[in-house]
Design the sequence.
């Protein structure tokens, strides 16, 4: 079962990588091609705090799995909870950023090519964060209810791969949108 | 053996007496890879008939200059639906359907790795297909009559933007293929996982049947190249519903980007369809030549090579876009490179037949025709990879003839071969050889009358996707011949359907291994029990059944 789960998850991650790659290519290709403002350099701010939250959530989920491996179920649940909170803070940060861009600067998906590619790429990533949070929440609930046991460590690990993947994608999105594209 | 046959008959007898609703319910809720495989292939064949009828209407319209068989708008819908259906709802489900049915049996597994995911993949594909065809009724929304999408199967931007195709027809195309694509990716995940984690005892990668290798290759390909289409379709959705500008040239965007994204999917897609066809041929030709497959390792390596190189050839569909000579040269070169591993395969099959004791059963007949026609398709493919030649003939009927030689002359012929070959395993009964021969000869003559001839009006400059043409171009007689091949193919298909219906009821009982074959699926009963194998045989060579039948001369030492 676990072998199957591993290969299956790797396949899913390959397919998702391919999906993201196309949005990244579109973003890179359309940098500087907007016919009207607002332009990235005028409105984008580096989401440092957000990035720190999301990246450190990869560490906390690993700590949670370490606890699960040792059989410390409560501790594992708590670290999962911390992971979820970090993910939720990231989402809230994205929401704040979008609010500022939409209301403050009037940048929507239909404003220009920057808006089109920015909201789709960051939005695609955010939607994956939401899916990841659902998975983590299930794990968290299960660990407190006692349904997640030490024997399930390999399954939980496979689920955590998805979360690590989402973090990895963010490094690419961050570099492309906030470093290259600004 | 007789005990097995008895239980088989009694099981079939029991099935016949159960109420229809119970049987139907069983098929709907099933997660068995064999039933899902059968449903994939059957729905693919139904869509084949639908899309074939659409093609027939087009051919009648083009039979002579100035005809008005269908209205011009309908003609555009017909070629869009024909192409889309054939690629997404006929080709993909049939090859993955065979993969579904055969892969676990060939590698000695109980089922696929994720049976419920498999059922999900099938149903979402089927409803995607139905959604596409619902557009005939609902394409214009509530405001008008029905209309199918009329954007061509590759749906070039900016034609697909809201400004140029109002109404919902384009959205049906977009959404239907998006959900069907999700199903295909799910199936690909399943196939890769099954092949790499669930092989039976002794079934090393180097002993897998070539068909399983082909399915592994196309599943990897699917994982890499199908999501880009999904991504492009999400972009199109955002453009059409949220006012984004991905392909909106008015906002500074590039419509050519859609072409790149689409063909990055669209070209490897041809290999996804064609490689399993090679797999069918590689299973059938050795059995009917009574020889071991010639050059197993090179054949497998050639498939992997086609998969890898095939991902870097997409822009040869775009030579006339004006990419510049550097890109043109690069894509021309990579396209010609694909011909090398493909050529290797032709020699694998010829080498297998050479010196063999060939039995010309119906599956073998289709494979022989496949060899000739596929060679022809490959040669016109190399012609078209030469960019200047391509400038002359791009978007002409020469191109149409070329890819129909690939998809019918090669793929459909191997699919027919596969159906004649594995029908006994699936149903327990043989298809009639006499009707099979009629089917073969009518279809091979009809196909070549239509598509060999079709190269000529293309050379004479007849563009594709035109509704009608003036009388002074000298195209009429060629088009008439092209259309005259049609009835032969239709009668051929009709005989095929009749053959299936009759053989299901009255065909000769097949027994476990009617062809004296060598792969594992023939080791179990026909049809196989739900659990596939009572005891999974231990495999020690590429021909496990040969080893079982000839314990004195096993294959292993010779490999």
Sequence:
């Amino acid at each position: 079962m676990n072998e199957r789960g591993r290969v299956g998850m790797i396949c899913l991650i390959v397919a998702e990588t391919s999906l993201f790659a196309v949005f990244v290519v579109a973003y890179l290709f359309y940098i500087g091609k907007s016919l009207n403002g607002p332009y990235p350099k005028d409105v984008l701010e580096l989401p440092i705090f957000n990035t720190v939250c999301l990246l450190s959530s990869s560490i906390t989920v690993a700590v949670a799995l370490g606890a699960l491996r040792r059989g410390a179920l409560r501790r594992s649940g708590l670290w999962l909870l911390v992971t979820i909170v970090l993910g939720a803070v990231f989402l809230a940060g994205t929401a704040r950023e979008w609010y500022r861009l939409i209301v403050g600067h009037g940048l929507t998906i239909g404003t220009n090519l920057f808006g089109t590619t920015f909201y789709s790429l960051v939005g695609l990533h955010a939607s994956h964060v939401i899916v990841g949070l659902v998975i983590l929440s299930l794990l968290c609930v299960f660990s407190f209810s006692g349904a997640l046991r030490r024997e399930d460590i390999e399954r939980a690990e496979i689920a955590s791969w998805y979360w690590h993947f989402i973090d990895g994608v963010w490094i690419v999105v961050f570099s492309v949108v906030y470093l290259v594209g600004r | 053996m007789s005990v097995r046959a008895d239980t088989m008959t009694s099981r079939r007898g029991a099935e016949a007496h159960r109420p229809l609703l119970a049987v139907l319910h069983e098929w709907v809720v099933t997660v068995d890879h064999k039933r899902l495989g059968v449903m994939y292939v059957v729905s693919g064949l139904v869509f084949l008939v639908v899309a074939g009828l659409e093609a027939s209407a087009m051919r009648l319209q083009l039979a002579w200059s100035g005809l008005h068989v269908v209205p011009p708008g309908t003609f555009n819908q017909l070629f869009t639906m024909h192409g889309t259906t054939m690629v997404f709802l006929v080709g993909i489900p049939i090859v993955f359907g065979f993969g579904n049915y055969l892969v676990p049996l060939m590698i000695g597994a109980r089922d696929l790795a994720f049976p419920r995911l498999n059922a999900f993949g099938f149903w979402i594909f089927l409803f995607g297909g139905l959604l596409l065809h619902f557009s005939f009724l609902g394409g214009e929304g509530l405001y008008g009559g029905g209309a199918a999408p009329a954007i061509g199967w590759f749906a070039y931007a900016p034609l697909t933007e809201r400004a140029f195709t109002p109404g919902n027809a384009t959205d049906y195309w977009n959404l239907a293929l998006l959900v069907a694509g999700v199903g295909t990716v799910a199936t690909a995940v399943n196939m890769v996982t099954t092949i790499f984690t669930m092989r039976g005892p002794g079934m090393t990668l180097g002993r897998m049947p070539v068909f399983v290798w082909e399915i592994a290759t196309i599943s990897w390909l699917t994982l890499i190249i199908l999501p880009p289409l999904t991504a492009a379709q999400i972009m199109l959705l955002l453009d059409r519903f949220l006012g984004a500008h991905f392909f909106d040239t008015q906002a500074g965007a590039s419509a050519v980007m859609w072409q790149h994204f689409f063909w990055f999917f669209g070209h490897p897609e041809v290999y996804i369809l064609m490689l399993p066809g090679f797999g069918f041929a590689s299973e059938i030709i050795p059995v009917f030549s009574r020889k071991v497959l010639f050059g197993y390792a090179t054949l497998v390596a050639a498939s992997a090579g086609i998969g890898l190189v095939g991902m870097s050839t997409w822009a040869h569909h775009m030579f006339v876009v004006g990419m510049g000579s550097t890109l043109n040269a690069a894509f021309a070169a990579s396209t010609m490179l694909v011909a090398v591993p493909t050529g290797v395969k032709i020699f694998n099959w010829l080498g297998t037949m050479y010196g063999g004791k060939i039995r010309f059963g119906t599956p073998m007949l289709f494979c022989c025709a496949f060899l000739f026609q596929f060679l022809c398709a490959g040669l016109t493919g190399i012609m078209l990879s030469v960019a200047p030649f391509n400038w002359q003939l791009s978007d002409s009927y020469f191109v149409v003839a070329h890819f129909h030689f690939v998809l019918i002359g090669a793929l459909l012929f191997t699919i027919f071969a596969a159906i004649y070959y594995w029908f006994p395993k699936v149903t327990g009964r043989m298809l009639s050889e006499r009707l099979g021969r009629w089917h073969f000869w009518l279809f091979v003559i009809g196909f070549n009358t239509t598509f060999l001839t079709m190269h000529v009006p293309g050379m004479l400059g007849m563009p594709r996707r035109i509704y009608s043409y003036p009388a002074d171009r000298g195209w009429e007689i060629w088009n008439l011949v092209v259309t005259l091949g049609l009835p032969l193919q239709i009668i051929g298909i009709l005989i095929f359907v009749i053959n299936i219906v009759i053989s299901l009821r009255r065909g000769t009982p097949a027994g476990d291994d009617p062809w004296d074959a060598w792969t594992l699926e023939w080791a179990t009963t026909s049809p196989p029990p739900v659990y596939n194998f009572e005891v999974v045989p231990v495999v020690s060579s590429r021909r496990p059944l040969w080893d079982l039948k000839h314990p004195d001369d096993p294959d292993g030492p010779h490999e």
